[in-house]
Design goal:
It is elongated and about 50 Å long. It starts with a helix and ends with a strand. The chain has a single domain, classed as Porin (Beta Barrel), CATH 2.40.160. Helices cover 15% and strands 62% of the residues.
Amino acid sequence: MRFTRSLFTVLTAWLCVSSLSAVAFAHDDGVMFGVRGGYYTKVEKPFAGAELLVRAAPHFYFNPNVEYVFVDNGSYLTFNGDFHYDFPTHSSTYLWLGAGVAFVRDHPDGFAPSTEVGANLLGGIGFRSEGVIPYIQVKAIVKNDSLFVLAVGLRF
């Protein structure tokens, strides 16, 4: 129990520090905040999340994010450190593919919490508009008990 809590604290700190260091190296126009929601198919529950999008290089983005899944009894969180490549489309549509690391924390009521490490594989489409970018994204979290996630979001 103590090890799991320590691991959770370390992972949370890592996500925060990596986000802040990425912001420090980003271009002035290369940082966006976003919110997302959707559905975890394996868990069969909706989720809400927040993200930071930081340009790391032309067409490459660092996208740390956290997602809270609304389970009935307990808590279920994912902390993700994703990178993706935006394909040049020469239009108002964005297309991307990416990958990253996922830390999945499941704490059912009455049971000890568990934290698993997995790999994220993702793809999405976004639509440029005035000051906000709505998008749709699909993600597979590959781990012992893999997950599939459908998301819609807004980036500001």
